[in-house]
Every structure is written in C-alpha cells, then in structure tokens.
Amino acid sequence: MANKNSKAAKSASGKYYVDTNCISCGQCIDIAGDFFKEDVGGGVYVKAQPTSDEGVALCEQALSNCPVEAIGNDG
Question: Residue 46: which domain range?
C-alpha cells in the first residue's frame, strides 16, 4: 500500500500520487503515460491528475498493476 507521507516531491497535487518506494519499472507510464512520468533522479511521479472518467480508469489500472504498490489514491 502506498504511503501518502512519502509522496514523490514532484507529484501534481490531487488524489493520485506515487511514493518513494517506486522502482521505476515503467508499468504505470505504459498504462497511463498522460499522467505518470519518470523522474531523472529515479522513481516516477504524477505529472497530471485525471479530469475524465477515462483518465481515472487508466490511473486506477496503473495503481492496481503497480508491482510494489507505490501508487496511491487519496480520493
């Protein structure tokens, strides 16, 4: 389960976040690349929060497929 107290610093504010346990596997970017971006320093962050039902579905799919459960949803 993602830790909201360890959110990646660059994440866009909103309900979705990536915590510092991210291993940069790229799965979330493959699934929802409009919302997740790899940080040059390692890890991934939320570059934009979804504003449509389709975007939310993609972020939820990324969340459920994260192998280390580093994606969270505060909503």
Answer: 4-73
Q: What CATH number does the domain containing 68 carry?
A: 3.30.70.20
Task: Determine if the pTM surpasses 0.85.
Answer: yes
DSSP state letters, 16-58: EEEBTT-----HHHHHHTTTEEE-TTSSEEE-S---SHHHHHH
- Residue 12 tokens read as 């866009």
The rounded distance, in Å, linking the Cα atoms of 44 and 23 is 8
Overall number of domains in the chain: 1
Each residue's pLDDT tens digit, 31-63: 999 999 999 988 999 999 999 999 999 999 999
Summarize pLDDT for 4-34 with one digit per residue, the tens: 999 998 999 999 999 999 999 999 999 999 9
